[in-house]
Design brief:
It is built from 5 helices and 2 strands, in the order ααββααα. With about 90 residues, it is mainly α. It has 2 domains: about 35 residues, no CATH class; about 35 residues. A two-stranded antiparallel ribbon has the order 1-2. The longest helix has 15 residues. The radius of gyration is 23 Å and the shape is elongated.
Amino acid sequence: MSEPFSIEDAREHFSELVESVAGNRERVAVKTPDGGEVIIMNAEDLQSLEDSLAMLSNSEFMTALRESLGQAARGEFVSVDDLMSRSMTITKE
């Protein structure tokens, strides 16, 4: 993300900023009169962030994720090739 735009510059170039956010999935910061900042971002990116936050806030999901990562670290996983061969065996039976 680049330097924040002043609210005046953002207003003057609003169409270009919106096109950049929509087309390039950039995030644009705009300084507010009180010294804060707001962000203009693509709606799909916002939805993705909200979905990620929802998952990370779900204790059951996080427990399962930690368990899965631990299993992977210990080598307790099935390779794609093994999974495919198991699938073929089940299909043939």
